[in-house]
# Entry
Amino acid sequence: MTETDEEIPTIKSFYIHDCPSLSGKSTLTYVVGTDAVANTLHLAIVGNTGNGLWFKGWSLASEIEALVADKQGLTAKSFCNLHPGRSVNTGGFILAALADLGLVQANPFNRNQYEHNSKATFEQVVAARMRIQEPEDARPRRKRAKEIV
# Structure
């Protein structure tokens, strides 16, 4: 195995969703995945209906959480350090996905800033979103008393 092969993550996507960009001018598609080998969660932006370019790689959930933990005044620039030297759009697109998931929320006094939402973790908001969007027929149905006989 070469050094390059070792750097390729073994991430498998398990959740995909669309959300509006922060400007509302385009729709973004993001995925959440897990690296079973490293036992880590990741986020990636995989689509944009607008013309903006972005970094198409994975962002480690623990690094995202470190950036948002108990913070206020988060902006798109706050997330540029996740992928230094890459497109500046990436930070805004990640922030839009995190707002859609509910990890951050808009600051009610400054529409350009966001804050961490109730000390939630990345894993908690993804799990909550997956429960909400689970198809009705995939949920176990409770049996009625008449059916238990």
User: Anything to note?
Assistant: The beta strands are 11-20, 27-35, 40-48, 59-60, 104-107, 110-116. The mean pLDDT is 85. The chain is about 25% helix and 30% strand. The helical segments are 3-7, 61-68, 89-101, 122-132.
